Amino acid sequence: MKPILEISHLEKRFGDHLVLKDINFQVDQGEVICVIGSSGSGKSTMLRCINFLEEPTGGRILYHGKDAATEWRRTEYNAKVGMVFQSFNLFSNMSVLENCVAGQMYVLKTPRKEAEEKAVYFLEKVGMGQYRYAKPAQLSGGQKQRVAIARALCMEPEILLFDEPTSALDPEMVGEVLGVMQKLAASGMTMLIVTHEMSFARDVAQRVLFMDGGIILEDAKPAELFTNPKQERTKEFLQRVIARQL
Amino acid sequence: MPANIPSSFFEWVSFLLDKYGALFFKGTVVTLEVALTGTVFGFLLGLIVAIVRTIPLSKKSRAKRIALHVCRFLLGAYIEVFRGTPMIVQSMVIYYGLMQVGVKMPVLAAAIFIVSINTGAYMAEIIRGGIISVDKGQKEATVALGMTHWQGMVHVVLPQAVRNIMPSIGNEFVVNIKDSSVLNVISVGELFFMSKSAAGAYLRYFEVFFITACIYLVLTFSVTRLLRLMEKKMDGQDHYTIYGSQSDSKSSITVQEGGQV
Q: Which top CATH class is B20-257?
């Protein structure tokens, strides 16, 4: 089976600062991949380069074998590659329902009625159906993030990118969001998740990427990476993080 | 001269109101007309300028990039010129300038044109500020969903930007009500111009302009209240209905036989 996403020699520099040096990996259909690493290692930048919120300064991203930067229409590609942000980024001028309808109507040109039905379907899935008429400002962080996930799902993406989806949440709300993500993973959704939730990465991911200094230092199954890391840097990082989390 | 000449301030005021009420009324109507249309057109003009000035530079097409740079430069120049010179001078230059080249604009049209183009320069910066103030993440979310820059602006950024700058738009409206008085230099029959004619007849400047001041105050006060109401309207309800609850008109609860829901 051909991978959905092939990333080769991805590079991103901001001025003189080289944030991503040489990123290479592939994502297969249905894979759940967690990306871990200390802050400043380039995890978020890598995710943002994958859907071109930041223009990469080098390398290639192939989506279904075609260059995402040149051979795909940007809007079409972005509709297929969904994104969930750390700070939710819900449209605050719209209700929860409208948030989920907007992309379908304006990008996919879905008729309103159909778009609303799909929106309700996914809102129910993340347990936010009854809040469909609320405005984002009236919701808690966990609720907002669940709506943001529903909004991304409404586009029926082929792969979902998560940029630290629980980092801006109160501890007691982390669980509800991770729960939704776990269900999503179980349903076969392809996911690339930048996270600091080590237990989530260990239990849900099929592969874990450890990033350090703008490269992927280690790429392994979670059982292997968490119990028997090959690199010294990985070991150090895990010791620090796991000591704090458990 | 009337048979019984008013002797006190209040007698003068009521006398002048009686005699020149129609004049004051006509002046008020013109002032409102000029201020309202000027603010609306100025807003639209400012909106277009601000939108063009916030278009991201295309990385692919060099021609587009250069065109955009030229546009931005011209619009920047427009803003600098019209913010940097007094409206009273602008009206002289535009009105008499056009006349010299053989274009005789009707004064009311000239008045609305001048106020619009002047307001547009201020609005452009106010609206640009509004656009910048909208949370950048929301614009990113529109891109991540596959929306174009234009779609993101129309559906997400501009509605929020306009809501946020409503107080400043109100400010501009109030300024226009007052500053349209400078248009009397090109003989626009607005409130100040009319007041001057009314004052001249009996040389009662204080009484006449006391009335004029009151009218301006009533105008600006009602306009600010009205805009407040509009803001409230834009904000919508501060509560929401839980879907499926009893207060939700769209839900229906059907009771089946045996009393089971």
A: mainly alpha
